[in-house]
Amino acid sequence: MNDSAPVGELLRQWRQRRRLTQFDLAEMAEISTRHVSFIETGRSLPSRAMLLRLADRLDVPLRERNALMTAAGLAPIYAERALDHPAMREAYAAVELVLYAHEPHPALAVDRHWNLIQHNRALAPMLAGVAEHLLAGPANVLRAALHPEGMAPSILNLGEWRAHILHRLRHQIETSRDPVLEALYAELEAYPAPADFDPTELTGAAHVAVPCRMRTPFGDLSFISTTTVFGTPMDVTLAELAIESFFPADAVTAQAMREFGASLAPSAAAG
Asked: Which region holds residue 264: left if phi is over 0, alpha if psi is between -120 and 50, else beta?
C-alpha cells in the first residue's frame, strides 16, 4: 500500500482488501454510498470522527489508522512507544506474567514482523541446536524455525509445519500488505522443503491446529500453539504484539515438560 496516496485512495484500497463494495461500507458506517464515493474520489475530505468510524468498520490496524490521519492532514492519534517506556511498564509486566505463568510449557512474545521480544525458560528445548546467528537480536522466530541451520532439521513434520507457517504469514500479508513480511515470506519460501510433502494435503481444517513435532534433548515432543493479543490496545506497539503459547499435543510431551518444569527454579516474574 502506498502510504503517500491521498486518504480517499487509501480508504478505497482498504475497502477492496476487505472485499467490500461502497454500498457494503456505507451500510456498515451508517452513511450514504454517495458519501463513501465522494471520500474515495477526494471530492469530500473526511473529518477525524468519520475517518475513525470508517477505519473501525474496515478493521484497519492502528499503525495504518495513523497513516490515514496523516494522509488527511490530521495528527496521528495512536502513540507508538517501546515496551521499556515508563508508560508501557504495566503492559510489559503483564506480558512477562503470561509467559512465565505458562511454564513448564514454551511461550514467547513477538512483534508484527515476528521478531522475538521475550520468552519463557521452557522454550530452551525447542531451540537446542539452533545456530547462534539465528538467535542474535532481534531474532526472527519464523526464520529460526525454518532455516536449515535453525529448528528445521529437528522438526519431524517439517513439510506440514512449513506449510502451516507460510499459510499464516501469507494471510498476515494479505491483511496488512507489509513489505517487510513480504520479503520474509520470499526468504522462507526459498528455504529447502521436504521433497516428499504435498502442501495440497494440508486442508483448511489442518491449518487450525497443526502440531509441531520435534526431536529435542528430552525426546520427540509434539506441540500445538495458540496466539494471544491484547483486546483493546491504544498503543501501536501493544496492538502489534502477540504471544505464542505452546501446549503438549500428547501425553509423552506433557510428561516430558512436567519433568523439565520440575528442574526450573521458581520464577520471579510468575511470582
From this structure: beta
